[in-house]
Structures are given as C-alpha cells and as structure tokens.
Amino acid sequence: MTEITRDVVIVGAGAAGLTAAHELRKAGLSVAVLEARERVGGRLWTDVIDGAMLELGGQWVSPDQDALIDTVAELGLDTFSRYREGDSVYVGPDGTVSRFTGEMFPVSPETERTIDEITRRLDAMVAEIDPDRPFAHPKAAEWDTITWDAWLRQQTDDDEAVRNLAFATGSAMLTKPTHAFSLLQSLLMAASAGSYSHLVDADFILDKRVVGGLQQVPVLLAERLGDDVFLNRPVRTIEWSDAGVTAHADGLTVRARSAVLAVAPVLYNRISFVPPMPRLQHQMHQHISMGFVIKVHAVYETPFWREKGLSGTAFSPYEICHEAYDNTNHDDPRGTLVGFVSDRNADDMFRLSAEERKERILESLSHYYGPEAKDPVVYYESDWGTEEWTRGAYAASFDLGGLHRYGADVRTPLGPIQFACSDIAGAGYQHVDGAIRMGRLAARNILADGRV
C-alpha cells in the first residue's frame, strides 16, 4: 500500500473533479485525483467502435453554457455546428409521418394552441425559479408534491399536447417516467437552461459539438495534472474530521487537509465514511436516483437522409426512439444518426435479446428516415445502466417531494469534504457545463475556508 500526502484529494476524474483539481493547482495547492475507472472523463467517453468514432456519453454544447464554452476555448479545442438543414420529422399518435420546419410539431391547430399556451405559462413559472435555490420558491412544496404528468393533465385534456410537453423534461432530459418526478424538478431542469422554451428548442440545447469529441475536455485537463491523476483507484473508505481527510483507495492512501467528492450522489454509498455520514445525508441520498436512457448510434455509408431534404432531427412521444438527430462527425463522409430510448421503453428493450432489440430500435428509426435506416454499417448502444461507476443516465434527480425537502442540503460540505458534480448544479444542471461550474465552486470553497 502506497501512502502520499496532498493538500486536497479529489475523488472522481470527470469534468467536475478535474476542473476542481485544475483550479486548486493553479492556486498553488497540491492535489491527487483518484478515479475508479481505467480512463478519465466519467460520463464523457469518446471511443472508436468498429472503426467509427462515437461519443458514448455527453457531447453537445449550447450557447448558454459559458463555463463549458470558456473551458473548450481555453483548451484550444474547436467546435462545429450540428447539421440541421432541411425538414424535421414528427410521428403522430396514429403513426402518420409529417415533415416540418421550425420548433412546433405538426399537430392540429387546437393542440398547437394548447402547447403554445402552456409553454408560455411554464416560461413564466421558470422565470421565477433560481436554479441554485429552487426549494426557496414560495410554491416549492406545492410544485414538488405534484407529478409533472399530473400537473400537465390539470392544464388540458389534450393527450397529444401533454405527451409533447412532457417528454422535453421527462424522456429527453431527466429520463424518467413523467409520473416519477415533480413539477418543481421539471421547472429546475428548464431553469438550468434559461427557460422551458430553450429546453425544447433542439437548435439551442443541441447546438454544437467539439471536433474529436467532448471527452477531450477531461483528457486535456488530466494531462495538465500529469502524475497526480491515479486511475483504477476506486476509493473504498474516507476517514474525516476537522483535522483533515484520509482516502483509502485500492493500493493507495492519500492524506489531505480537504477533499472533493466529485461523483454522482448515487455512488456515495460505495464509500464507507468514518465516522458515518450524518442521518440527513443518509436519508437524502436515498431520495436521489439516476434516470435511464439508451443512446443509440447508427453509422451509414452516407448521410442518406440529407438527400431526402431531411435535417436528421426527429421527434415522437409515440416511438421507441422518442428523438433522433444527425450526429455525423466533423468532415466525415459517412453519416451517423443518434437516437434515444428512455425510461420504461429502455426497460422494455433490455428485456429483449440483443438482436431483437436492435431490430425494434432500427425499425423505429426507419419510421422517421425510411427503410435505409434499418441497415447501418455500425450499430452501437450506449448502456450507462451497466456501468459500475455510473449506474444510469444522464444524471441523478430527486423523487417526488425530495427537491424541496432536501435541495438546500445537496452541496453542504461534510466537514473538510466538498461535493461537486453536474447532478447538484444549478445553471448547467445535468450537463458538463454544470459539472465545470460545481468543480470551480468546490475549489473556491476550499480556498476560502482556510484549511489549506
């Protein structure tokens, strides 16, 4: 067992942990970053599958994500815009396939008016939410004890309107059934992006990608830290007191004055704390869970949909793949589609054999793009639910009633231990931008608290 001493020990080499380490190192402190995986990046992972470069985890950059945009620029990385020329596709409740342009789905005039009216109502509510303090809103308890689905159905009996409004934060973002989380949790998701309208605007929220993949952000940050990043070192025990922290990882012990726990809350229970975490944390962490989504990558010899005048953007709350996009890599002659299968649909798909699942998913894509979608040259499913050190996707959120009950406590330090991850962010909540913001905040807190 090797033992080392540092000013700060950071658990987790994702965007949050590496950002915190980088900021602390710039301030003159010594750090050690302990990562359970054999790679850095956490939920960012760019890999080559059957000769195709695929972004298996997070990948997009939106215009409001200042922390991420600044980091990408500071690291010297280039970005490119998602392909969006041509028509989008919508599949209605009866299976009718419609092409359209703009943000509004091709629904009946009555349904369109309903969606527009409720969207305006939601934007007004979101404008009142501080994404760092959603629990402080006067109606937080009321909004946190009604499900997202139930609130929408109180507004209208138009089922198609409800499904289209609901999936923006349900299947698409929190990746949980809409009866499983609250209106307040949905409003937080929207507030983190600036408005509900931003969240449902694919051209905004999925604006750009990084040339070569977004995992380069943590990779380059780790390179700057050099030998202070330790891979294959899952932390098993953390001893803590006002005097400091001792982190026991496989084959390595780090003694430090402060620590940053930069992993998702669902992984805190993989670590034994000595003394144990207080009862508040024990209770709180049982009310936070990951969503679940299959990210489907289908690579074709050419982006055949473009020849049909399609942008590659497709939506339907009635399809197995509720949304899909042109995900072709920069300067790649081949075409790539990325589709998403969320919550209960994902559960159902994993009850099938791999071959039947692939067939069903590609059939769903073919409803948007035509029969050519059934014959990719590369097919791959990102299944973060099987990742031991992730356990779901995209991120963690509270169950019904949990946000107003515990939201004020998710970032509260545990003695010398700070918490940092996208799951507890305000702006950039559940995004890489939020992870970077939380990493910076943890570093500022350590520098301000006088322990090091």
From TrEMBL:
Cofactors demanded by this protein: FAD
Entry keywords, A to Z: Oxidoreductase
Signal peptide region: none
Enzyme Commission code(s) on record: 1.-.-.-
Domain Amine oxidase, chain residue ranges per copy: 16-447
SUPFAM superfamilies from the UniProt entry: FAD-linked reductases, C-terminal domain (SSF54373), FAD/NAD(P)-binding domain (SSF51905)
Enzyme class: oxidoreductase
Alphabetized Pfam families for the sequence: Amino_oxidase (PF01593)
GO function terms (MF aspect): oxidoreductase activity
UniProt superkingdom: Bacteria
PANTHER family: AMINE OXIDASE, AMINE OXIDASE [FLAVIN-CONTAINING] B
UniProt similarity note: Belongs to the flavin monoamine oxidase family.
Protein name (Swiss-Prot/TrEMBL): NAD(P)/FAD-dependent oxidoreductase
